[in-house]
Amino acid sequence: MAPLAYTPVEDIPKIHAELRQAFRTGKTKSVAYRKEQLAQLAWGQKDNATRLGEALQQDLGRPPIESDLLDINPSIGEAKDAYDNVEKWARTEKTRFDFNWFASGPRIRKEPKGVVLIIAPFNFPILLLLGHLASAIAAGCCVLLKPSELCPATCQVVTDIVTQYLDPDMVRIVNGDVPVVTQLLELQWDHILYTGGGRVAKIISMAAAKFLTPVTLEVRFPHHRKSPVVIDPKTADLPLAARRILWGKIANAGQVCTAPDYVLIPREAQDAFVKELQEAYKSFYAEDVAKSDSYSRIVSQAHAARIKRYIDETKGKVVIGGAVDVETRFVAPTVVRDVSFDDSTMEDEIFGPLLPIIPVRDVDEAIELINSRETPLSLYVFTKDAAFKAKVFDNTQSGAAIANEVVIHVGTTGMPFGGVGPSGSGGYLTGKYGFETFTHLRGTLDNPKWCAVDTLVLKGRYPPYTVKNLRRMLKVSMPPRAGARAGGKRWGLWLVLALVGAVSAVLTRRRV
Questions:
Q1: Per annotation, catalytic residue among 218, 276, 349, 436
Q2: Could you tell me what percent of the chain has a pLDDT over 90?
Q3: Which Pfam families does the record cross-reference, listed alphabetically (predicted)?
Q4: Which residue in the list 141, 142, 151, 257 is annotated as catalytic?
Q5: What pLDDT, on a 0 to 100 scale, did the predictor assign at position 512?
Q6: Known catalytic residue at 141
């Protein structure tokens, strides 16, 4: 395959201006047009699924079946879900009933924010690019895509899909590295969605601040932000927990932003859990894992070397794996037991197939340790005890809180996904929540002459001002004071006001 052609930096302002001009025509506001583009997006991925799988294998060493399961099919599913529901999502809504304002017809219009920028990472270069694109198309935005240059083969296939299947008035794509991103951030966008490292997230936030551009961030690699697993050995199914946790750590060679990053388990249960992990590992890889066609590679030698340093410097005991070949970007699934909280494996988010196990005294110590670090993107609990689960969830903070499962919540239909604090901002990605990320809620009001708002509620807004009129306008039904009994609703007043409003409307119409 020929090297990926980078977009000339000098072309980017022109592309941006063309998207801006296309948005101003109002073309993308048509829901029928959006559905047409969503169908094209779904079929573009379906028709090229084999090419995408091969490209991902070339870029990431990822097994094609794993790419279908975790990247390609979920992205197609996002386009299909948006296609099926965009008419409902985009429908103008009535506000809740309020007698004072009902005649004014308050409504909420769902309108596209405008021209948006989506910057995707290398680890899931389909779902975290084209999945987000489905949300932006559903909202009616014009979109510029910037895929990760670390996956050049995948970038080429995605570029072909965008240029061959989608309307260039709505969607464009640029390829490149730092100079391209730098130029993109010089321009004004109506929303920026970024998934990736914390350092770049800060750069993007500062660039967006120049224009007060809203941003949605899902951030990996911030200092001390790691997704923990808490295990209740008294009730948890340890064999099942071991299989699911180990799978969450080996999928895409651990290069998953929601992968379990460390395990907290009572000291007396560590031996039993390690044994179950070893059994699960044997069932996954009966032969040499380095030769398995069911295991991925690390994206670059630099990242492989980083993980190797964690393993080399750990003071814990390696009980599974430990082998690393930086040149071929191979890192074996590795489990380290008896890890302390200041160990090399606990410095940052690992983003690789390395799982430290930290023995703790009890769940209280586990919660204390979790809260001593920055807010994780995901938090996992394995237990059958509802009280145990509630205690962990109620006393911690995370982007997502998941029981007896790992990772798959990202693709759960109808559930938002996003970080909080250092792990990101905004619940986005799936379904309606992705649509809302790129949507402006535009309030509308149409106040007729006969409306009681002017004759009763806001009559006192016109000079000359009087205390009596002011009191009438500012009269608010207050909640009861603390410790006081709640009073009954003043239905009589409401009925009188309703009657007066109805009569005034009839009389006004008769005059006309």
A1: 218
A2: 71
A3: Aldedh (PF00171)
A4: 257
A5: 47
A6: no
